[in-house]
Amino acid sequence: MIPPQDELIAVIRQMNPWWRGAQITDLPTWRRAAFRELFSWILNPPTHRALLLNGARQIGKTTLLLQAIEALLEEKIPPANIVYVTFDHPLLKLLTPDEFLKIWRQIETAVPGVEYVFFDEIQYIPNWQVWLKHQTDFEKHRRITATGSATPLNTELQESGVGRWHTINLATLSFFEYTTLKNIRIPELPG
What we know:
alpha/beta, five-stranded parallel sheet, globular
C-alpha cells in the first residue's frame, strides 16, 4: 500500500531543502579523503556508470552524499535537478524507485541538463541491481549515486553490475583522517 501522496511529498521536500533555497543543516565542513574520488566521479564520470558508496553503518556515507550535493549546488547545478532520498525511511520503503522519481518530478519541474539522483540505503529497494542496470543503460541524462551497508551490498554485488556501476568501498576513519579531523599536528619522524 502506497502512503497518501501529501505525506510522501512532505517527507521528500524535507529531505531536499535546497529546492526551497535552504541550506543542508548540521553538515560538517571537514571532508573525508574519499570525497575527492566521489565528487570527481559525480561531476565528470569517466564513463556512464552509477556510483555505489559501500561500507559499514555509521562511517559517513550519508554525510559524503550530502557534502556532494552541497558541492554540486556550489557549482551552480539547478537545485531542481538534484534529488536525495533515504530508503530506510518507513514511508519511502513502500515506493519503487520509479514511483519516487515520478513524485520528484511532480514536485520539481526538470531543468535542462543532467539529473543527479542520490539514493541512500539502496539495499532496501527490492531488485535494486536490475533497476540500476536499466537506469545506466537507458537514462543517460541521469547520474545516480547510491549508498548501502557493506554486508547486503557485498552479497548483492555478485549480480551483473560489472560495467554498470563503480564502487567506492568506504572504511572507518584512517589515522591520518582522524588527526586531520581533530587538528592534531603529526610530529616529524626520524628518517
